[in-house]
Amino acid sequence: MEDSMSYGKKSTGQWIAIYAVIGLLVYGGIYFFMGQKGEYKADVATEAMMPEPSSEAMMEIADKLKTGKNAMTLYVFDKDAEGVSNCYDQCATNWPPYMVEDDKMMVEGLTVVMRQDGTKQYAMDGKPLYYYIKDLKAGDMMGDGVNGVWHLAK
């Protein structure tokens, strides 16, 4: 007499049990890695290896950075020549120049370069200075390293 449960064939009840176990494993894995609120839980060991910078270190960085109006971060462009801005059109839309608004109100430690359109732009050590359109508030530094040619002005 042949066994009704031959090798390789599963009954409907066995398949239901297999799918139930797989479902529980998947749900348990998601719950473990995502937590109850659906937020990814970082590995505690990883967090311990990457401590927050101290407030002293952040102040030291901030002291070295140049900022413009409203304390917004300023950048330099590797493709600029000394005393010459090479950022116009779409470049200047994404990287607005730090413009001189009043010749009588010079910024200490900065010089001025003349742009092609006759307007004046602040510079540091001969390098024209720019803001970055994606920096939305003081302290943002989203432009540092963009395309390997934009850097924080220090």
Folded structure, characterized:
By secondary structure, the protein is an alpha+beta fold. The chain is built from four helices and five strands, in the order αααβαββββ. Helices cover 29% and strands 11% of the residues. About 12% of the residues have low confidence. The protein is rod-shaped, with a radius of gyration of 29 Å. The longest helix is centred in the first third of the chain and has 23 residues.
Q: Let me know the average pLDDT.
A: 78
Total of domains: 2
Q: How many extended strands?
A: 5
Radius of gyration in whole Å, from Cα?
Answer: 29 Å
Order of helices and strands: HHHEHEEEE
Instruction: Give a quick account of the main beta sheet: strands, pairing sense, barrel closure.
Output: 3 strands, antiparallel
Categorize the overall geometry.
rod-shaped
Percent range of helical residues: 25-40%
Q: Structural class from helices and strands?
A: alpha+beta
| Helical stretch tally | 4
List the helices and strands and how they pair.
Layout: H1 12-34, H2 44-49, H3 55-64, E1 75-77, H4 90-94, E2 111-114, E3 120-124, E4 127-128, E5 150-152
Antiparallel strand pairs: 1-5, 2-3, 3-4
